[in-house]
Amino acid sequence: MVKSNLPLIVSLASLSQSFADQGAPSLPPGFHNDLDDISVSAGHFHTCAIESRPGVEFGGGIKCWGENAHGQATAPSGIFVQVSAGYMHSCAVGIDEQVKCWGKDFGVVPEGLFSQVSAGEFHSCGVMKDGSVKCWGANHWGEGAPNGGDFVQVSCGNGSTCGLRGNGLVECWGRNDKGQLDAPEGKVFKQISSSLNFHACGLEYESGDVSCWGWNHREQSESRTGPFVQVSAGSTSTCAIKEDQTVECWGAHQPIPHESLLDDQDMIYDQISLGVDHACGVTADGELHCWKKGSDFGAHQVPLGFAVA
Ligand SMILES: *[C@@H]1O[C@H](CO)[C@@H](O)[C@H](O)[C@H]1NC(C)=O
Question: So which residues are the signal peptide here (predicted)?
Answer without folding.
Answer: 1-20
